[in-house]
Amino acid sequence: MGIQHDLARETWAVVAPHAAGASDGRARTEVRDSAAGGPRGGECPAGRLLGLLYWPILVKLVADWWDDPNYSHGFLVPVFSAYLVWQRRAALTAEVPRGSWRAGLPVLLVGLALLVLGEVGAERFLAASSLVVVLAAFMLLHLGPAIARRLAFPLAYLLFAIPIPAVAFYAIAFPLQQLSATNAAWTLDLLGVPVMLDGNVIHLSQITLGVTEACSGIRSLVSMLALAVAWGALMFGRAWATALLAVAAVPITVIANAGRVVATGLIGQYLGIEYATGFFHSLSGWVIFVIAFVGLLGVYVLLRRIPALQRTPEPASAHPDGTAGERPTGHWNAAVKPSARVLVSAGLLAATFLGLQLRGTGEAIPLRKPLSAFPATLGEWQAREATLLDGDTLQVLRPTDYLVRREVDPAGRTLWLYVGYWDSQRKGAAQHSPKNCLPGGGWEPLEASKLTIPLAGHSAPLTVNRFLIQKDRDQQVVLYWYLAQGRPVAGEVEARVEMVRNAIFRHRTDGAIVRVSSPVYGSLPETTAWLVRYVQVLYPALGDYLPG
User: Fold this and answer.
1) In this structure, are 157 and 215 located in the same domain?
2) Is residue 364 situated within a structural domain?
3) Residue 256 has pLDDT above 60, yes or no
4) Do 80 and 63 share a structural domain?
5) pLDDT digits 0-9 by tens, 454-496
6) Is 382 found in the same domain as 285?
7) DSSP one-letter string for 223-273
8) Is the Cα torsion angle 59, 62, 64, 67 positive or negative in sign?
């Protein structure tokens, strides 16, 4: 009956144990023969190696679900995926396993390459998502494309349990913060409450609300998207309807989160600050999620009115012929010796595991001087005062070391210097882009460009980002760049790529960001030229404090 082997039987034991429909005597005989004469599923080397290879990653994932409120729904995602597989049990047993070298082997190689790149390059999203690719490869290689197609959605749904990269997370979270603050301020003003909006900070007469990352709505958004996709898959069974429900979850979540900020503001304004914080604030998060769920329910009811969706979708557990027949015999329980596919799978998994173990997980932490010892005088500029970041900011940025201080030249012109350094970025800590942070402080970007600065004693110039920003009538010029293991780069993505490259070849994931800003003195070109002169003096002095 094609290629039936122990891995196919092991896969069936995992994805659809005890499928509906009692087997006849012949099936029971074949199962007994399989147990007596062939290797049992639990003895499959590929399955054991797969668990051994991904066990540390799964432990980190569970820790993320437990510690990170943004991904606490991760505990439910595998449960729902397993239910979807169980729902398809009869259709799966109706298929004959027809493994494909051509379809499975390339996908397996890609999945293992992603795993190695993620583990060695300190990119946790690549490492975790590679498991989905490897499982898809196992299905294609051992069970065949027909079975893999039936399991494609349950497998893809597992991606909702994997935290997205920090660069992407903050690129989404900061705009959501701004949107929530803007909508909340507009609503409060509409209700007659005196309000002033300063970036992500809402000032009322009795309370000041800072719309932080936790209040951005991204927690509810990720959870609501996972819920909407699961709901659509169960109730509609059609991709386009599920997509519509998922798209509707985005504005519903944004509106509901703005409502939470409005409610917090009204409670703090009229009842007291103590009622707007602590337990009541945490409780409001759950209340808003329930309200968003009711909104999603309303969209579902509207979608059900579409004629094409009024018919109940065919159960996924039905056989291809529409009957609810018994589980076919002879397809999944044949006693055969491990095929070449099992040996190749096990060999590739073992080679990957040994390679990762031999390379080790150690990281080189370069020696450097603390930024607190940075010179107080740089050329014509003199340090006047240093500033400490507040606790909330430190909790978000998590730098190993940092420096924030004001510098003044002989003419009395002031600029601000910020240097943030991370000795390791393996645990999720990373530089935050000013293009996201500055709007959060109420600064509106007016111009954005790249600027090339020649450096004495360096063959290559320094490329930095230049921003002209404005708040009310105040304008500032901002120059910033990243240092990826000593190499200056302007782009956020480029800095992340450099981090992965250096993690692979140099066992280092340290990085830094340098930002210089000042009010506009005279004209914009004059201020820019003044800051360029400062950067030309600053850059050589950073060498001992930001290792190359």
Assistant:
1) no
2) no
3) yes
4) yes
5) 988 777 888 899 988 887 778 889 999 988 877 888 877 787 7
6) no
7) HHHHHHHHHHHHHT--HHHHHHHHHHHHHHHHHHHHHHHHHHHHHHHHT-H
8) negative
